[in-house]
Structure formats: C-alpha cells, structure tokens
Design a protein that fits this description.
With about 400 residues, the chain is mainly alpha-helical. Among the domains are: about 90 residues, no CATH class; about 80 residues, no CATH class; about 45 residues, no CATH class. The protein contains 11 helices and 8 strands. The strands form 4 sheets. The chain has a two-stranded antiparallel ribbon with strand order 1-2. A two-stranded antiparallel ribbon has the order 3-4. The longest helix has 28 residues. This is Ubiquitin protein ligase E3 component n-recognin 7. It holds the Pfam family zf-UBR. GO terms for molecular function: ubiquitin protein ligase activity; zinc ion binding. Keywords: Metal-binding, Zinc, Zinc-finger. One of its GO terms (cellular component) is cytoplasm.
C-alpha cells in the first residue's frame, strides 16, 4: 500500500511539473525569441523581463522583451515578469545609459506609455518582498492581479483564497477601489456570491432617484416625469393646446422615452436598483466569464476609460488568451518540424490517412446523432479501436498483393 501511495504521489508530482512546464512554454511561445518587439510598438501582451545586472542606483524601471533577454542580456541576472499588457521594449534606451540593444539599436529615448511597478525591481506584493524570497521558508504561492499585474502572496490578499477547479481571475483590493463600480458587479458575479441586501431605508431613496430622473445624451437630465409627460405644458383657456405646444409635448415625450430606454439598457444601474451589496474589503476572485457581464453602454465605457480599465472589455486581453495563442504556436511548430522531416510519399500518405479518418469520424458522429445516442468516451474509444483494426486488416491484405 505504501508503494502504491508513493507511486501515486510521484505521478502527481510529474503531472504538476509538466503542467508548469507547459504554462511556461506557452508564455514564451507567444513572444518572438529572436526579433526585438520594439518595432511592433506597444504590444497588447508579451513576455517581459527586467535586468538586474544592467540596473544602476537611481535608475528608472525598465523592461525588455524575450528576444532582448535572450540576446542582449544573455548571462545577466534577469527577473522574469511573466506577461505585461501594452508594453514596448526598453532595451538600449536612455535609461540603460551607454548599453545598446543588439537587435534594434534605433529606439526612442523613452517609452512614455509603459506602466511600471516594483516588479521591475524584483519586488512583489503589498509586502514589497523579492521572489524567490530567501526569508520565506514555505515558498508561498503567489497570484497575479489582472488589472495592476502585480503578484500577491495568498496571505496578503485580504480574503480567503478561493479553491476552485474552474479558472478564476483576481482583482486586488487597491484596483477594486480605483474602479469602484466593480464592487457592484462583485456582489452578483464574483466568487463567492453575496446574498445579503442593503437596508431598505438606504436602498429605497437611491432607487427612487434613479427611476425619477434619467440621464440625457447631452449630459443633462430630463425633468421628473409627471402624469402628463416629462414637462407639464400650459394649456389654452378652453383646455386645447396650440400646434407648437403639441409639438413640444411630443418632442419631450420622445426625449423622455429615449432617456428611459438608455437607462434601462445600463446593466450597472439595473444591478444597483436590486440592492445586493458586498463588503468593500479584500481582493476579489471572479469566474472567467465575468467580463461578459460588464455593461457596454456609453456612460460605462467612459467610466472604464477614466479608471484605466477599458481593457476589461477586450476578450484577447486575458492571460489565458495569450497562453492559448502560445500553445497553438507550439503545436504548429511541432507539426511543421515533424512533417517537414518526412519525404513526399510519407507526407501524402499522412494526408490521405488523416482525410480518411476525418470522413469516418464524421460518419460515426452522424450515425450516433441519427440514433439519438450520446457521444460517450466509451463510444469514441470503440471507434478508434475499430479504426485500428481496419488499418491492420488493410495492412495484412496488402502483404499478399504481388505485382
């Protein structure tokens, strides 16, 4: 029993190491290892490194791309910063003094749009400690905030770490407070969900305020609605209205209707009226689909820009999207290198066999659908066993075909 347990533990350890290796390869594969990324400007996301060897006292923070880390700073003490968004390679600019980039020497003196933090000096988390930390005997796990992209120890998140099998994204408390409207979304969509509501004495006035007045496209507000429309128009002594007054009333009603429709379309305002709240303390964990819940109305988009988080609406911004791109490139490189090592006859044979398998698989799936059967792992396993058997029968039959 002890041996079996030991074997399971060993296998689990190998699996973990392989997964970490795959993630590391995916991060590196998404960036070019030989061409400096400077010519591509501020890239949406790339692997970034900081050179401790080139850093001098009082030097401004700098980062370099994968290619420069490989070629210009080979053998240096390098901090691996994982990935950064909207970053342009600094290698060889004025912050490096007389050091020149070997791959792209003609660069601006400074990349003014780059955003830096203490990671570029090899320090992380709210505790401002290095990683790996010689004083940390445990080697505690760290997690990255998707907004500021700093890395935090689990014990410094200000909340209990969420143990979940599904992929989660984390926003630190500081970033939540820089974009405070995220707290409203967190009450409904973050993990774990909040089930308590605000005190009715608090929520009712807010709801009344939001339903009695609507934002207009010109930035103003429509007058509170009455039983006779947005603004009550005076009437003639006999109770009739002039044509001008009728037009004014119609225009105001259309205006009021448009304003109400715009307010109704705002997901954030609708959530606020429901009264669900979350304590504004600690980091927040989100299920991976949470970004799709964010409102995209004009006012909310403006709020994202003001808070500097407009990238939350970009599906390709996520680290997962970047890693998937890297994994795809890895598969393409592997297939290309394997395929190119074969001669022309072998390449054609593989193509024919692949097309045959694709046709048979499609026919197999159609049969299951026609019979109303589910696609189970057992059915797929049986399909490939039969496919192998057919291949063996064709191979055996071919041995007796003499020309």
């Amino acid at each position: 029993m002890a041996d079996n347990e030991g074997n399971v533990a060993a296998v689990s350890l190998v699996d973990v190491e392989d997964e970490e290796l795959r993630e590391a390869l995916a991060v590196l594969a998404g960036s070019d290892p030989d061409q400096c990324s400077y010519q591509q400007g501020y890239m949406k996301r790339q692997a970034v490194f900081a050179c401790n060897t080139c850093r001098t006292e009082g030097m401004e923070p700098t980062g370099v791309c994968l290619a420069c880390a490989n070629h210009c700073h080979d053998g240096h003490d390098i901090f691996e910063l994982y990935t950064k968004r909207n970053f342009c390679c600094d290698c060889g600019n004025k912050n490096f003094g007389t050091f020149e980039c070997k791959l792209s020497p003609k660069k601006d003196s400074q990349n003014t749009k780059n955003v830096y933090n203490h990671n570029y000096f090899g320090r992380y988390c709210s505790c401002d400690r290095p990683y790996p930390d010689e004083d940390d005997q445990v080697g505690e796990e760290m997690i990255q905030c998707i907004i500021c992209e700093d890395w935090y120890h689990l014990k410094h998140l200000g909340c209990a770490a969420v143990d979940s099998e599904e992929l989660l994204e984390m926003v630190c408390e500081s970033c939540m407070n820089k974009a405070p409207f995220l707290w409203t979304y967190a009450a409904y969509f973050a993990t774990p969900p909040v089930t308590s509501k605000e005190n009715e004495d608090v929520t009712t006035p807010n709801v009344e305020k939001e339903t009695s007045s609507y934002p207009c496209r010109d930035g103003g507000h429509a007058e509170p609605s009455t039983s006779q429309g947005c603004i009550k128009n005076p009437t003639l002594p006999n109770g009739d209205r002039t044509e001008s007054q009728k037009r004014t009333r119609e225009e105001m009603e259309r205006h009021s209707s448009a304003c109400q429709s715009e307010a109704a379309l705002c997901k954030l305002k609708n959530l606020k009226t429901k009264g669900l709240v979350r304590p504004r303390v600690g980091s927040v964990f989100w299920p991976y689909c949470w970004r799709s819940k964010l409102c995209t109305c004009t006012d909310c988009k403006r709020a994202y820009v003001e808070a500097g988080v407009q990238f939350l609406l970009d599906e390709s911004d996520t680290v997962l999207a970047y890693e998937n791109k890297g994994k795809s490139l890895l598969r393409e490189d592997l297939l290309t290198s394997c395929f190119s090592s074969l001669d022309r006859v072998q390449q054609l044979e593989i193509i024919y066999q692949f097309n045959d398998m694709k046709d048979e698989l499609n026919a197999f799936l159609r049969d299951l659908a026609d019979q109303g059967k589910e696609v189970t792992p057992e059915a797929i396993h049986a399909f490939f066993e039969e496919l192998q058997a057919k291949k063996r029968r064709r191979s055996s039959a071919g041995q007796y075909n003499c020309s």
